[in-house]
Specification:
265 residues; alpha/beta; Purple Acid Phosphatase, chain A, domain 2; 6-stranded mixed beta sheet; 5-stranded mixed beta sheet; 7 helices; 11 strands; 21% strand; globular; binds fe (ii) ion; hydrolase; iron; metal ion binding
Length: 265
């Protein structure tokens, strides 16, 4: 079993800027890392930090440098996939020495941890919000599933293969969830799919395998399925997730919001 800390949707900006002119995502990331550093003993030993995309909001080199430095404070191996806000080559440059990162092309990778294989998939289509899995990405996944030395496999991608009912997010979802389901259909190991993008906790399935989405580190989208639902974000609840991999493991969200306790029962 491997244990991962899943962080998602950091949306870091260049110095002096705010994401959507509202969120100081640099300060939010720094305070989240501070808080997580104080919680690591309670969480238990971790094997890696898995970042499921939208590391940057503006794609700037400065945003990636800051994110890399802050994530580095956790002193754990980093595994990173791009999101729709990311710039592939700027992300690659910043994390080249820290994460399994192809030198060119799509940022698809395979990482073997104790008892578990992690496969990172690149769904970024630069210039649009929605994501897509290319043929070469699906080929890599198929090969990774067939050749896995472990009984557990985690598939990490930014765009989840499920629909939330939030119209403005479903409009920029994953175009070809069916292709992912088909690719995983014959897997003989236990597969779980983890994603971000929707800035909230959702559980569903792709084919026969569970899908979980992590809360964002910077903001949240309300579950508002009305036709006239306002398009926009809320400042919270923010959070991340811990994944104990494998069929007996759990995926759990940690909300990074202020609360007092523990109080005795
Ligand atoms: Fe996204």
């Amino acid at each position: 079993m491997a244990r991962l800390l899943q962080l998602s949707d950091l949306h870091v900006v260049a110095p002096g800027a705010r994401a959507s002119d509202v969120l100081d995502t640099r300060a939010l990331l720094r305070s989240a890392i501070d808080r997580l550093l104080g919680s690591l003993d309670a969480i238990g030993p971790l094997d890696a930090v898995l970042v499921t995309g939208d590391v940057s909001d503006d794609g700037s080199a400065a945003s990636y440098d800051f994110a890399r430095a802050e994530l580095g404070r956790l002193d754990l191996p980093l595994l990173v996939v791009p999101g729709n806000h990311d710039q592939r080559d700027a992300l690659r440059d910043a994390f080249a020495d820290a994460a399994p990162m192809p030198r060119e092309g799509l940022i698809d990778w395979v990482a073997d941890l104790p008892g578990c294989r992690i496969v990172g998939l690149d769904t970024l289509v630069e210039g649009q919000g929605g994501g897509r899995l290319r043929v070469e990405t699906l080929d890599l996944l198929g090969e990774a599933v067939r050749g896995s030395p472990h009984e557990a496999l985690v598939v990490a991608l930014h765009h989840p293969p499920l629909r939330t009912g939030i119209r403005f997010m479903d409009a920029i979802g994953l175009e070809n969830s069916g292709a992912l389901a088909g690719c995983l259909d014959g897997a003989s190991c236990f597969v779980q799919v983890v994603a971000g993008h929707v800035h909230g906790v959702y559980h569903g399935r792709v084919g026969r395998w569970p899908v979980s989405t992590a809360p964002a580190l910077c903001s949240a989208f309300a579950l508002d399925r009305r036709v006239e639902a306002p398009v926009g974000f809320w400042t919270g609840p923010k959070g991340c997730a811990v994944i104990d991999t494998g069929p007996d493991g759990i995926w759990t969200a940690i909300l990074l919001e202020d609360a007092d306790g523990p109080y005795a029962f």
